[in-house]
Amino acid sequence: MSNSSAPLPRPPAMSVIYRGPERRNRRTDDQAWIEVITQMDRIYADLVRYQVELEQKNADLEDAQRFIQSVISSISDVLIVCDINGQVQKVNPALVEAVSRPEKSILDHPLKTLFAPEYHALIDGFPAHIRSDTVIDCEVSLLDNAGQPFPLAVNCSPRYDHDNRLSGFVITGRPLGELQKAYRELQQAHETLKTTQQQLLQSEKMASLGRLVAGVAHELNNPISFLYGNMHALADYEQRLKRYLDAIHTGIDEPARESLRRELRIDFLLSDMGPLVEGSLDGAERVSSIVQNLRRFSMPQQQQPERFDLVPVIERAITWVLKASSQAPRIERELPDSLSLTNNEGHIHQILINLLQNAVDALSDTVHPVIRVSAGQGKGQIWFEVEDNGLGIAPEHTSRIFDPFFTTKPVGSGTGLGLYISYGLASEQCGGSLSFSPSELGGARFFLTLPQEVEA
Ligand SMILES: Nc1ncnc2c1ncn2[C@@H]1O[C@H](COP(=O)(O)OP(=O)(O)O)[C@@H](O)[C@H]1O
Ligand SMILES: [Mg+2]
């Protein structure tokens, strides 16, 4: 529309000419002409007024359009106007920029062509949703010219014409890019954290494996060196017996044979062979029982609760922890001869090892380190207690002691998983409880209770 249309041409002025003698008739004609001219003037004036009004309306309309256009252009959210069949009728510059396609290739095309294929079915459903007056709020991805997704959180609302009839719908979409980037970063951080946790768990496992191996190696060392020594002696005895028998077979006389018998110490050899074999068998049995204990410890999950005596388990845990440690705290035992219970031996062994290891760790700066280990039973329960005279647990740490990864030890020496794992094993796997309090010895006291009979 234009407001520069030319003004209406004014009709030429009428001049009245008198041409005859009949004055009366002439007067009537003049009157008629004057009326016509007046009428024409009025019409002309009306036309001019209409034109001015129209031009004013045009100008107002163009102002309104420019205003709407500027508002639409300044919206950073994506705006798409569709007819009721889902054909695109209008889009804003934010949409054009997001899909990096010319506006011409967007208008009068189906709405779904703007979106990634996986959302086509969803978008196809928009007209039906709009007709049934359902609110549409969802996340979809536009597809730009290079085929890259442009994620949006969209909202779709109905559009009505001047007769208040449903004529289409309007989609507004907020770019999810920033939000998604932040979310991706968060997820990445979460993944890294999970990996780190896994690594820490792994290193805790490796640390306890290290302690275990050191303890076991020491345990195995005794019987194996014993066996080794015995085998050496037996090999030497075999040589001597062979020499002696060879000499007899060559038919040497009795004095020579007696002298060889003394020289080769055959009598001692014969008397020593029995204990040597017996000792070797003992050693082999010891090795076999250590290996069995080790298997029980390393495969606790596959274990069924079984009846066992806690006292030797405590002793074994003390031995393993002390052998693997460079310190030698004095161990005070307040233990009965035996404490029979039905529970998971492997788990309990692991808890004892963790508690004793922490006590040993807490004593690193103590001049006369002492660990007191006590156990007993009552009211269908077995209890076990380990106390030390170390620094104890600082009040600000008491609420976090069983948290995973809580450690006050230097990086590399503590993973903060020992108590977390022990607590879980005690309460969930063994049906018992684990708690702590200050010890009268000056350090910390950890208290484990276990049911005498745990159900499988
Ligand atoms: N006997 C103890 N004396 C003092 N503090 C202890 C004792 N046992 C555990 N703690 C505290 O609890 C924390 C967590 O122990 P734990 O879960 O076994 O992890 P880690 O031994 O790897 O630090 C320790 O770092 C220490 O601060
Ligand atoms: Mg620990």
Radius of gyration: 51 Å
Could you report the average pLDDT, rounded to the nearest whole number? Answer: 86
The largest sheet has its strands arranged as 2-1-5-4-3
Let me know the CATH homologous superfamily of the largest domain: Histidine kinase-like ATPase, C-terminal domain
The overall number of domains is 3
Beta-strand percentage range: 15-25%
Helix amount, in percent? 40-55%
Total DSSP E strands: 12
The ligands found in this model are: adenosine-5'-diphosphate, magnesium ion
Describe the structure.
This protein is α+β, with helices and mostly antiparallel strands and about 450 residues long. It has three domains: about 1-65; about 75-175, PAS domain (Beta-Lactamase, 2-Layer Sandwich), CATH 3.30.450.20; about 300-455, Heat Shock Protein 90 (2-Layer Sandwich). It is about 50% helix and about 20% strand. It has helices at about 25-75, 95-100, 120-125, 125-130, 175-250, 255-265, 265-300, 310-325, 345-360, 420-430, and strands at about 80-85, 90, 135-145, 150-160, 165-175, 305-310, 330-335, 340-345, 370-380, 380-390, 435-440, 445-450. Strand 11 and strand 12 form a beta hairpin. It starts with about 20 loop residues before the first helix and ends in a 5-residue tail after the last strand. The mean pLDDT is about 85. The structure holds adenosine-5'-diphosphate and magnesium ion. Magnesium ion binds near residues 354, 357, 358 and 418.
